[in-house]
Amino acid sequence: MEKLYFCTMLMESDKHITGPIGVFDSGYGGLTILRDMRLLLPQYDYLYLGDNARAPYGNRSFELVYRFTLESVEALFDRGCRLVILACNTASAKALRSIQQRDLPMIDPTRRVLGIIRPTVEKLGELSHSHHVGIMGTRGTISSRSYEIETAKLHPSFTVTGHACPMWVPLVENGEAYSDGADYFIKKEIDALISGDPEIDALILACTHYPLLLDKIKRYTPPHISIVTQGEIIAHSLEDYLHRHPEIDSRCSRSGRVEYLTTESAGRFSDMASLFMGEPAQASHIEPGKKTHTTLCPTI
Ligand code: DGL
């Protein structure tokens, strides 16, 4: 009882401390979300974490994706983040609900973790005229059927066809995005998706790594199909969320800084992030997976 009271007091006093917005992905993919957040909301500080040492997540079990994601969220919390965005569809599909409902109340109910599937589905009404939408993602995202479930709630007249592209993330994580070999896998999956539903007029890239393959995806997608990436959608959704939640907004620090953490090589991450963000980026290495289910209160 005493411990609980002390924790509550700590959380109360903690309410006035600010910290960066945490952005998490299994690897480089979340940079495609961070870039648009920075463009729209440059005043905030951001702390990005790529779990490159354990990427890709796409073919991993529910339990592993959940554990890796929770560990990463805790690493961002430990470094001062009050709000963490899972800039990863696979983590949003497999870990978000458990973290929000089971872990956050124990860790710190005043902090927030948000995903990227719901805000993307909210936009579908504006993106398709035929009401036939194609979703390309990792095996984890597609087999979770998260997009179908959310779409059925918000746009019941829509037909959603999901298609997994298990080779696309490894192409990005291994620096093969621009190689000739990538063309084969990109064309193959787009052809398979469209043959599954020829009425599709909007193709959602429901994996944050896929915009890094955008030039080639455009090359093999028929011109009447619009290709939708998530960066702008998520940035606008974050702006709206912070507007509606001033108690969270006031806990996000604002000096326009970005810092990068990776569980793999800091040098390689810095090169990729600098290239992609169009500004010098200096990443730091952290060890993956130190702890789970810690409360942020000291043990008494
Ligand atoms: N970028 C992630 C996503 O949006 C996951 C990629 C992976 O690690 O397989 O799903």
Would you write up a description of this structure?
There is one protein chain. The protein is globular, with a radius of gyration of 19 Å. It has 300 residues and is α/β, with parallel strands linked by helices. The chain contains 15 helices and ten strands. 43% of the residues are buried. Helix 2 crosses helix 13. The N terminus and C terminus are likely disordered. Helix content is 48%, strand content 15%. The termini are close together. Strands 4-3-1-2-9-10 form a six-stranded parallel sheet, with helices on both faces. Bound molecules: D-glutamic acid (DGL). D-glutamic acid binds next to helix 4.
Main traits of this protein?
six-stranded parallel beta sheet, 15% strand, binds D-glutamic acid, alpha/beta, single chain, disordered N terminus
- The number of distinct β-strands equals 10
What does the oligomeric state look like here? single chain
Write down the Rg. Answer: 19 Å
Return the string of H and E elements: HEHEHEHHEHHEHHEHHEHEHHEHE
Q: Beta fraction of the residues?
A: 5-15%
Q: What composes the largest sheet? A: 6 strands, parallel
In one word, what is the shape?
A: globular
| Count of discrete alpha- or pi-helical segments spanning 4 or more residues | 15
Low-confidence runs (pLDDT<50, min 5 residues)? 1-9, 293-300
